[in-house]
Design brief:
The protein is an alpha+beta fold. The protein contains 22 helices and 63 strands. Helix 21 packs antiparallel against helix 22. It is rod-shaped and about 230 Å long.
Length: 1515
C-alpha cells in the first residue's frame, strides 16, 4: 500500500497537526530538542524529528522523512539476548517453529512453504511468545520486566475507550480477532505479530503500577532486514493519577507541585513505528487547568476565555530505563486545547490551534546573599494562531502568537509569518518580521487590545526598522528614521511600491534625515527633516508617493528665500520626481510670494542646472501671473507703462501677463507654464500682446486674425521697462526691390515720445557676390510713414564690392536707410532704399552711397569726395590692379570728386557709368584747371577730360572743335604719361597744338605744333619750358618756352632748287637782255593776272558747291540725330514701363507673399495656442487623474485591502484545511483497519483525532472568514469603492489616451498647418520669384533692345558724322582744294617768274661781268650748285610771338664739296626775304672767294644783290 505525504506551508497548516510529540531536553546533551509542536502528515514513516518555533504547529512531512535513523537503545535494550525472561530461565528457544496463517490459513509445525519474517527468528520474540503462552509469573521483554505476562486477545480497554471516544470507529473496527486457532507452546510466533500484556512497576516507583503492553510485529518495509534489531513498541498505562513533581522529584518545590497528571501513559519505541511519538520514551497525560494553577489559569481564562480547560500533553523523555528513576534535567510538556473553543476578549480576535508548553529547566542564579545557586525552574508558554480583524482587509490578519512570562510580565507576542504584502492596507507595501506585542494582566479581564508593533521594511539592500502601536479598534502608527536618505533612498522607496525608478534630477538635491510613518488615515508617509536644494535649506517636508512619481513639498527655513536679488516670502519648495519608464522628468520648483512695483504675486521658481559647462551653480526662473480686472480683455499695457498713455499704443492689452525673473538668458520654465516666452536674464513681464495697427501696415492685414504677438517687457529699477515684442512664428517683411528681412521682432522705445520699432535684418543681393549683404535693421513706425536705419552685420565692411578687387573694402561701417509710406508701400515699395559706407582711397575716405535696384546688375555705388591727389588715386589703383603702379610725383589733384562703382556698365538717365570703379571731378593738372572722367581697372588708371583755356607763355590754348582743350592721362605699370590736344593762335594763324607730358620715370612737359606759313614754309615747332617743372613747382603756365623748328626735307630741297635757278638763269643772260626781260616781265604779269582771275573763278565755284554739300550733310546729321534720339527715347520709355511693370508685379507678389506669411503666422499662433491649452489641460487632467487613482486606491486598500487577493487566499485556506481534514480521515481510517494487536498503529489514532479536531475548528474559522469576505465584496460600499478605483484608473487611462490623442491631434494640426502654410508661402514665394524672373526677363529684353538701339544709333550717327567729317575729303572739297591749290600755284609760279624776270632786267652790265666770271661753276653744277642740308630755327616763345625773328642755322654745300654753315634771321612775317638773305649770303661767300679763295666778284655780287633786293621789294 502506497503511503501519502501531504505538505503545506507552515502558514497554511498551523492547525493541521497529525500528532504532538513531547520531547525531553537534556541540558548539554546531544539528543533532539524541540521547543514546540512538531507535526507530520499521515504515513510519513521515514521522517526525522524536527524542531519548530514557538508558534509553529505544523511541519511538512518532508521535514520528517529526510534521513534514515540509527536507533540507539539503553544498555538494557542493546543486547537482544538479555530480553529473555529472567524469571523463567528454563524457557527454551522455539525459534525453529513456525506457525503462519499466511501459509494456508492454519497453524502448522513446518515452516515449509512460507517465508517467515526474519525478526521472528530473534530469540526475544520467541521468549515473549513463550512467556505469554506459558503464563510465566514474570518475563523480561526487551528490558522490561512484566508481571503475569500473557498473550493479549483484545486491545487494552483504556486504549479502546480512547479510540471509540476520539474517533467514529465502529465496534467492528475495534473488535478482537483470534491470533491462533490453538494457543499452545508448540507454535512459533505468528508472522503478523502479536501483543504481550502484563503489569509493571515503572521507573522504580513502587507506589505506582501500570498495565504494560508490548507489541511484537513484523519489520516495517522501510527497515533494512540486515539491521538485526527487532522492532520494539512498549506501552505502560498508569492506574493512578500523580503529581508531576513526584514523577520528576528534582522539580519539587516549584509550581510543578500543583500539576496533576491524569491518564498517564508511557511509551517506548526503538524505531518510529508510532509516528505520533519520538523514538525513545514518551510521556502522555491529561491536565485540567483550574484556579490552583495560578497565572496560567488566569491567562487562559481572562484572555483566551477558557473556564477550566483540559488538554492532552505529550513529553519526549529520550532514552530512559523502565526500572530506573527518570533522568530528566529539563523537560517540556506540549499540547493543544481541543475540548473547548477559545473566547478572546475582543470580537476582532479569533484564536485557533491554541496550545501550551509547560517547561521545566535548570537554572543558575544568585540568591539574596549573592551566592550562586543551582536549581530548577518552571515556565510556560501559550501559543496558537491569531486571526485579528483589521479595518483595511476583508479577511483577518493571521499570525502565530506566544504568551510568555518575561521579567515578571506576561506578554502576548504575535508574528506575521514571512512577508506581509499590502501591509496596513497600503498597496505594494511589504513588511518583514512583523511582530505585535502586548502586556497582559493575568488577573484582570482585558477590555481593549493595544499592541506594540515592530517590523522590517526592505528597500533594495537596506533594512529599515519600524516601531509603533496598533489597536484592534483600527488605530495604528509605525515610524522609522533614516539617518541619510538621499536620492537613492527615495528611489528605493518608490521602487518598493511601483517597481519603477525615478528620473534623476538635474539639480543637486540633498536629502538627509527622514522619518517614515505608517498611520491610520494617512497611510504611508515619508517626512524629510534635512533637505537642501543647492544652497537653500528647507524645513521638514512631506514626501508623497503616487502613480505619477514622488512629490516632496517643504517650507523654506526662515519663511523667506533670497535668490540673488529676488526675495520670496512664505517660501516653499516643491520637487516632483518623475517616473523614468514613463519618460517624465524631475522638476524642482520653489514658490511663495514676491512683491514687485507695489504688486504681490504668487510665484513659482523653477530651478535647474546651468547649461553652461563653465557654470557650476543653479539657474532659476521666477514666474507669477498678473490678475486682470477684465480677464477677457486682459491687462492694459499702460497700467504697467504709464508713458504709453495718450499714444497710439495706449489701447494695447496683455493676455496671460506674467512676471518672470530669470538668472540666465533663454531660461527654462519647467512645469511653470507651457507658454513659449523668450526669457532674458533679469526681471521682465511676458504676455501675449494685442495687435498693433501700424505693424499690420507693414506686415499686412490678416483677415481679422490675431498675430499673437508676444511681449517681453524687461525691467530694471534704474532704466524702467524695455519693451520687446516677438512674433509667435518667424515673420519676415518683403521691403521691395527684391529685399527680404530676417525674422523680425518689435520694440517699443520709451523716453520722450514712445516709438514703435521693427528690429531685424535685411539681406541685400549684390552683383559679384554669392551671399547677399546682411544688415541689421531698425525700422521706426510713425502714424503715416516708417523709416529705417541699419548697419552691416559682418565685421570689417563689404569686401570686394562687385567683385572688383579683394583689396577693396567699403566700410568698415555701412549704414542702411529705408523710407516707407504706408499708403504706397504695398504698391510701390519703399520710397527710398539704400545704404552708405566709407571707401578708402589712399588717405581719403569716400562716403559711398548705394541705391538698391530690382536688378543687381544695375546697382550703383556713388560717393562724394572733396579732394583726392594723385598718390591717393595710385594707391587705390594698386588695390585693384594686379600689377603695381609706381608712385608718380604728386602733380595732379582732384576736387569735388563724384565716385561711382557698378558691376556692369549702366546708363541711368543720360549718364553712362562704366563697369568697375570710376569718378568724375574737377582736377588741377600742372596748374591748369580741368574736368575729368577717371576709370580704374585691372590694367590701371585712365583719365580723360576737358581742360580750361590756359596760357603757355604768351599762347592761349583752347579747344579745337569744342570750347575747351581735351587731355588724357594713363597710369599703368609701364606707362605714366598723357597729352593735351588744343588750338593756339600764333602769328595770327590758328594752329593745332599737342602738349605731351610724362610723370614717370621723369616729370617732363613739352608741346609742338605745325607752322604753315606757305606751302614752301611749313615746319614742326617744338616748345620746351625754360624752367623745368617739378613736383614742388608743377605749374607749366608760369614759364616761357624755347621754340625749336626744323625745315622739312621737302622745304629744304625747294629752297635749294630756287637758289640754283636763280644762279642758273641769271648767269646765262647778258646785260643786253635786260630790256627784253623787262618786257617779258610785263607780259608775264598780265598773263599771270588773267590766270589768277580764272583760277579764282573756279575756286569760288568749287567753294560754293562744297558749301552747299556741307549744309546738306550737316542737316542730314541733325535729322539722323533727332531720329535716333526719338527711337532711343521710345525704347527708354518702354524700358521704364517694363521696370514699372516689374516693380508693380513684384510688389503684388510680395503683398501676396506677405499675406501668406501673415496667414501662416496667425494659423500657427492659433494652433500653438491650442496645443499649449491642450498640454495645460492634459497636465491638469493627468495630474488630477493620478491623484484620483492614488486616492481611490488608497481608500479601497485602507478600507478593504487587496480584496480579490485576500478572498483567493481565504478560499485557498479553506480548501487546504479541508484537504488536510480529508487526509486525516483517510489516515485514521487506514489505521483503524489494521489488526487490533497492531498497537503502534492503534496508538496513533487518538493523537490524529485530536489534530483533526483542531483542523475542523480552524476550518470553521476559515469558512467564516471567507463568508465575511465574500459578503464584503458583494456589499455596496466595496462595490462603490472598487468602482471608484476602477473608474479612476479608467479615467487616468482615458485622460492619458485622450490627452495624448488631443495633443497628438493638436500637434498634427500644427504640423499640418505648418506644412500647408509652408507650401502656401512657398507657392507665394515661387510666384514672387516667377514675377521677378518674368519681369527681369522683360526688363532685360527692353534693356537689350535699348542697348542695341543705342549702339545702332551710335553707328548710324557715326556714319552721318563720318559724312560730315568727310566734307574735307569729299569730291567737292577735293575740287575746292584743287582750285585753291591751283590759285596758290599760279600765284607761286607767277611770283617766281616775275621775280626772276625783274632780277634779270635789273642786273645791267654788271651782271654780265659776274655771269662771265661765274659761268664756269654754274654750268658745271647746273641745278645742284647749292645743296641746303639743314635749316634749324630757334627762338624764345615770348619774343617770337612779339614779332622778333628766329635765329636760323643753315648748313649745306656749294659745288659739291664746299661746305657752308652760317646763321641768319628768319621772320615769319617776311618769308621771301629769307630766300634773298640766303642768296645774298651765298653770293657774298662766292665773291669773297669761297669757291676760289678770292674776292673777284664781290662788287658784281653786291650790285646783283642790291638790284635783286630792290626787285623783290617791288614784287
Amino acid at each position: 500500500m502506497s503511503e501519502e505525504s501531504v505538505t503545506h506551508s507552515s502558514s497554511q497548516n498551523r492547525d493541521s497537526s497529525l500528532f504532538i510529540t513531547l520531547t525531553s531536553n537534556h541540558v548539554g546533551g546531544t539528543s533532539n530538542k524541540e521547543t514546540g509542536i512538531s507535526a507530520v502528515t499521515p504515513r510519513a514513516k521515514e521522517s526525522d524529528q524536527s524542531h519548530s518555533n514557538g508558534h509553529d504547529i505544523i511541519r511538512s512531512a518532508e521535514s520528517m522523512a529526510s534521513s534514515e535513523h540509527e536507533y540507539d537503545h539503553h544498555s538494557n535494550h542493546s543486547d537482544p539476548k538479555e530480553s529473555m525472561s529472567a524469571c523463567d530461565t528454563d524457557s527454551e528457544d522455539s525459534g525453529d517453529d513456525c506457525e503462519s496463517s499466511d501459509c494456508d490459513g492454519s497453524a502448522t509445525d513446518s515452516s515449509e512453504g512460507c517465508d517467515e519474517p526474519t525478526h521472528h527468528h530473534h530469540p526475544s520474540h520467541h521468549e515473549a511468545w513463550k512467556a505469554g503462552l506459558e503464563s510465566h509469573d514474570c518475563s523480561v521483554v526487551h528490558g522490561a520486566t512484566l508481571q503475569a505476562p500473557s498473550i493479549s486477545t483484545d486491545l487494552p480497554s483504556r486504549l479502546k475507550e480512547q479510540l471509540t471516544t476520539s474517533t467514529a470507529m465502529d465496534a467492528k473496527q475495534t473488535a478482537a480477532e483470534p491470533l491462533l486457532k490453538n494457543l499452545d507452546g508448540t507454535h512459533a510466533p505468528p508472522p503478523k505479530g502479536f501483543m504481550l500484556s502484563g503489569t509493571i512497576v515503572p521507573f522504580g516507583m513502587e507506589s505506582l503500577s501500570a498495565d504494560f503492553y508490548s507489541y511484537h510485529g513484523p519489520l516495517p518495509s522501510w527497515l533494512d532486514p540486515e539491521h538485526g534489531i527487532p522492532p520494539i513498541y512498549q506501552m505502560a498505562m498508569l492506574n493512578d493519577d500523580l503529581r508531576l513533581s513526584s514523577l520528576f522529584p528534582a522539580f519539587s518545590g516549584t509550581k510543578f507541585d500543583s500539576y496533576s497528571l491524569k491518564n498517564v501513559t508511557f511509551t517506548y519505541q526503538n524505531i518510529p513505528l508510532d509516528e505520533t511519538k519520538i523514538v525513545g520514551y514518551t510521556l502522555e497525560s491529561d491536565i485540567t487547568f483550574d484556579s490552583s494553577y495560578g497565572e496560567i489559569h488566569d491567562v487562559l481564562k481572562n484572555f483566551f476565555g477558557f473556564n477550566e480547560p483540559s488538554f492532552h500533553i505529550s513529553c519526549g523523555l529520550d532514552e530512559q530505563d523502565w526500572h530506573r528513576s527518570l533522568r530528566v534535567p529539563s523537560f517540556q510538556l506540549t499540547g493543544l486545547f481541543t475540548d473547548e473553543k477559545p473566547n478572546p476578549p475582543s470580537e476582532n480576535l479569533q484564536l485557533t490551534g491554541v496550545g501550551a508548553r509547560i517547561t521545566g529547566y535548570s537554572r543558575t542564579y544568585r540568591n539574596p546573599a549573592g551566592e550562586l545557586v543551582h536549581g530548577k525552574a518552571y515556565g510556560y508558554a501559550l501559543f496558537g494562531t491569531m486571526h485579528m480583524t483589521v479595518p483595511w482587509s476583508v479577511i483577518p490578519l493571521e499570525m502565530g502568537f506566544n504568551v510568555e512570562t518575561r521579567s515578571g510580565d506576561v506578554k502576548l507576542q504575535a508574528f506575521v509569518d514571512g512577508q506581509w504584502d499590502g501591509a496596513f492596507g497600503i498597496k505594494q507595501l511589504t513588511l518583514n518580521e512583523v511582530a505585535f506585542t502586548m502586556r497582559l494582566d493575568p488577573r484582570a479581564p482585558i477590555d481593549s487590545l493595544q499592541f506594540d508593533v515592530s517590523a522590517l521594511l526592505e528597500f533594495n539592500s537596506s533594512l529599515i526598522s519600524l516601531y509603533g502601536h496598533f489597536s484592534t479598534s483600527g488605530d495604528y502608527l509605525l515610524q522609522a528614521t533614516f539617518e541619510q536618505l538621499d536620492f537613492n533612498g527615495l528611489n528605493d522607496v518608490f521602487h518598493h511600491f511601483f517597481q519603477d525608478t525615478l528620473s534623476i534630477p538635474d539639480v543637486d538635491i540633498h536629502v538627509g534625515a527622514a522619518t517614515i510613518t505608517i498611520a491610520k488615515g494617512i497611510g504611508f508617509t515619508l517626512e524629510v527633516h534635512d533637505l537642501k536644494i543647492g544652497d537653500h535649506t528647507a524645513s521638514d517636508g512631506v514626501v508623497q508617493v503616487g502613480t505619477a512619481g514622488v512629490s516632496l513639498r517643504a517650507n523654506i527655513k526662515g519663511d523667506a528665500l533670497k535668490i540673488e536679488n529676488v526675495e520670496i516670502k512664505n517660501a516653499f519648495v516643491d520637487i516632483q520626481f518623475g517616473r523614468k519608464e514613463h519618460g517624465t522628468k524631475t522638476s524642482v520648483m520653489f514658490g511663495g510670494k514676491v512683491c514687485w512695483e507695489g504688486r504681490e504675486f504668487d510665484v513659482g521658481v523653477h530651478v535647474y542646472q546651468s547649461r553652461d559647462p563653465k557654470q557650476q551653480g543653479l539657474e532659476f526662473t521666477v514666474y507669477g501671473q498678473f490678475v486682470a480686472l477684465d480677464p477677457k480683455k486682459g491687462l492694459p499695457l499702460k497700467d504697467l507703462v504709464p508713458a504709453l498713455e495718450n499714444t497710439s499704443m495706449s489701447e494695447l492689452h496683455l493676455q496671460g501677463a506674467a512676471l518672470v525673473i530669470a538668472s540666465a538668458d533663454d531660461a527654462e520654465l519647467g512645469a511653470l507654464t507651457h507658454s513659449k516666452y523668450q526669457i532674458r536674464k533679469g526681471v521682465q513681464v511676458c504676455a501675449v500682446l494685442s495687435d498693433l495697427p501700424t505693424v499690420n501696415k507693414i506686415v499686412g492685414e490678416n483677415k481679422g486674425q490675431s498675430l499673437g504677438l508676444i511681449l517681453r517687457a524687461g525691467w530694471s529699477p534704474s532704466a524702467g521697462f524695455s519693451l520687446d515684442i516677438f512674433f509667435p512664428s518667424p515673420t519676415t517683411i518683403h521691403i521691395g526691390r527684391g529685399i527680404i528681412t530676417d525674422p523680425i521682432s518689435l520694440k517699443i522705445v520709451l523716453g520722450g515720445t514712445p516709438q514703435l520699432k521693427i528690429i531685424g535684418g535685411a539681406f541685400i543681393p549684390v552683383e559679384g557676390r554669392k551671399e547677399p549683404l546682411h544688415f541689421h535693421l531698425d525700422l521706426t513706425l510713425d502714424a503715416l510713414t516708417a523709416s529705417a536705419t541699419g548697419q552691416l552685420s559682418a565685421p570689417g565692411g563689404w569686401r570686394n564690392p562687385f567683385g572688383i578687387s579683394e583689396q577693396l573694402v567699403i566700410g568698415p561701417d555701412l549704414a542702411l536707410k529705408v523710407s516707407i509710406v504706408y499708403s504706397t508701400f504695398f504698391i510701390q515699395g519703399p520710397s527710398g532704399f539704400g545704404f552708405v559706407g566709407g571707401l578708402k582711397i589712399g588717405k581719403v575716405v569716400g562716403k559711398m552711397e548705394f541705391n538698391i535696384e530690382e536688378v543687381p546688375s544695375r546697382q550703383l555705388l556713388s560717393a562724394k569726395v572733396e579732394n583726392l591727389d594723385l598718390h591717393d588715386l595710385v594707391e587705390f589703383a594698386n588695390n585693384v590692379s594686379p600689377v603695381p603702379i609706381a608712385r608718380p610725383p604728386n602733380v595732379v589733384s582732384f576736387h569735388e570728386v563724384s565716385l561711382y562703382m557698378c558691376p556692369a556698365g549702366v546708363t541711368i538717365g543720360t549718364i553712362i557709368y562704366p563697369a568697375g570703379f570710376s569718378f568724375i571731378s574737377k582736377v588741377t593738372l600742372f596748374g591748369i584747371n580741368a574736368d575729368v572722367n577717371v576709370s580704374v581697372g585691372s590694367s590701371g588708371v585712365k583719365c580723360k577730360g576737358g581742360i580750361d583755356n590756359f596760357k603757355l607763355g604768351p599762347l592761349t590754348v583752347r579747344g579745337v572743335k569744342e570750347p575747351r582743350a581735351m587731355f588724357e592721362l594713363e597710369l599703368t605699370s609701364s606707362k605714366q604719361a598723357g597729352k593735351i590736344d588744343g588750338m593756339i593762335e600764333f602769328l595770327g594763324v590758328e594752329i593745332v597744338i599737342v602738349a605731351n607730358f610724362e610723370l614717370h620715370p621723369n616729370f617732363t612737359f613739352h608741346f609742338m605744333f605745325l607752322l604753315h606759313l606757305t606751302d614752301l614754309f611749313t615746319f614742326e615747332v617744338y616748345a620746351y619750358p625754360i624752367s623745368t617743372p617739378s613736383e614742388e613747382n608743377p605749374d607749366v603756365t608760369v614759364t616761357d618756352y624755347r621754340l625749336t623748328a626744323e625745315f622739312r626735307n621737302k622745304t629744304r630741297d625747294q629752297l635749294s632748287l630756287k637758289i640754283n635757278k636763280m644762279f642758273d638763269e641769271k648767269a646765262r643772260r647778258e646785260a643786253k637782255e635786260a630790256e627784253t626781260i623787262q618786257q617779258k616781265l610785263d607780259d608775264a604779269r598780265q598773263a599771270w593776272q588773267a590766270d589768277m582771275d580764272e583760277e579764282q573763278r573756279k575756286l569760288d565755284k568749287a567753294y560754293a558747291s562744297w558749301t552747299t554739300k556741307s549744309s546738306e550733310t550737316h542737316d542730314r546729321l541733325e535729322s539722323i540725330k533727332r531720329e535716333q534720339k526719338a527711337k532711343v527715347d521710345d525704347l527708354r520709355h518702354k524700358l521704364e514701363d517694363e521696370r514699372e511693370k516689374l516693380h508693380r508685379n513684384v510688389n503684388e507678389a510680395q503683398a501676396a507673399l506677405t499675406a501668406a506669411n501673415n496667414e501662416r503666422s496667425a494659423r500657427l499662433h492659433k494652433d500653438r495656442e491650442n496645443l499649449q491649452a491642450k498640454r495645460a489641460e492634459w497636465d491638469g487632467n493627468i495630474s488630477g487623474a493620478h491623484r484620483k487613482v492614488d486616492d481611490t486606491t488608497r481608500d479601497l486598500h485602507n478600507r478593504f485591502g487587496n480584496t480579490e487577493r485576500d478572498i483567493e487566499e481565504a478560499r485557498r485556506k479553506v480548501n487546504s484545511l479541508q484537504q488536510d481534514i480529508d487526509n486525516f480521515d483517510r489516515e485514521i481510517d487506514r489505521l483503524g483497519r489494521t489488526p487490533w494487536w497492531d498497537l503502534p498503529s492503534k496508538a496513533q489514532i487518538p493523537a490524529l483525532a485530536t489534530a483533526k479536531g483542531a483542523l475542523i475548528f480552524s476550518k470553521e474559522v476559515a469558512d467564516g472568514v471567507l463568508r465575511i469576505a465574500l459578503g464584503v465584496v458583494e456589499a455596496q460600499d466595496f462595490i462603490v469603492c472598487k468602482g471608484a478605483m476602477q473608474l479612476a484608473h479608467t479615467a487616468l487611462d482615458e485622460a492619458q489616451r485622450c490627452g495624448a490623442t488631443a495633443i497628438r491631434i493638436a500637434d498634427e494640426a500644427l504640423a499640418l498647418t505648418d506644412r500647408l502654410t509652408t507650401e502656401l508661402v512657398a507657392n507665394a514665394n515661387k510666384a514672387l520669384e516667377g514675377a521677378r524672373w518674368l519681369g527681369n526677363t522683360a526688363v532685360d529684353a527692353a534693356d537689350g533692345a535699348l542697348v542695341v538701339a543705342e549702339k545702332s544709333s551710335i553707328v548710324i550717327i557715326a556714319a552721318a558724322q563720318a559724312l560730315v567729317d568727310g566734307l574735307t575729303s569729299c569730291a567737292e572739297w577735293t575740287a575746292y582744294q584743287a582750285a585753291s591749290a591751283a590759285v596758290a600755284a599760279a600765284k607761286e609760279a607767277g611770283s617766281d617768274a616775275l621775280l626772276l624776270a625783274k632780277v634779270g632786267a635789273k642786273i645791267g652790265t654788271a651782271i654780265s661781268q659776274f655771269a662771265m666770271k661765274a659761268w664756269q661753276w654754274i654750268l658745271l653744277h647746273l641745278t645742284s650748285f647749292v645743296d641746303i642740308r639743314e635749316i634749324v630755327l630757334s627762338a624764345q616763345l615770348g619774343k617770337a610771338c612779339g614779332g622778333a625773328e628766329f635765329d636760323a642755322s643753315i648748313k649745306g654745300t656749294m659745288a659739291d664739296d664746299h661746305f657752308f654753315d652760317f646763321h641768319i634771321s628768319f621772320s615769319t612775317a617776311h618769308t621771301t626775304e629769307f630766300i634773298t638773305a640766303i642768296f645774298d649770303k651765298l653770293v657774298d661767300m662766292i665773291e669773297d672767294g669761297f669757291l676760289e679763295g678770292g674776292k673777284a666778284i664781290t662788287a658784281v655780287a653786291q650790285g646783283l644783290s642790291g638790284d635783286l633786293v630792290k626787285s623783290l621789294q617791288e614784287l
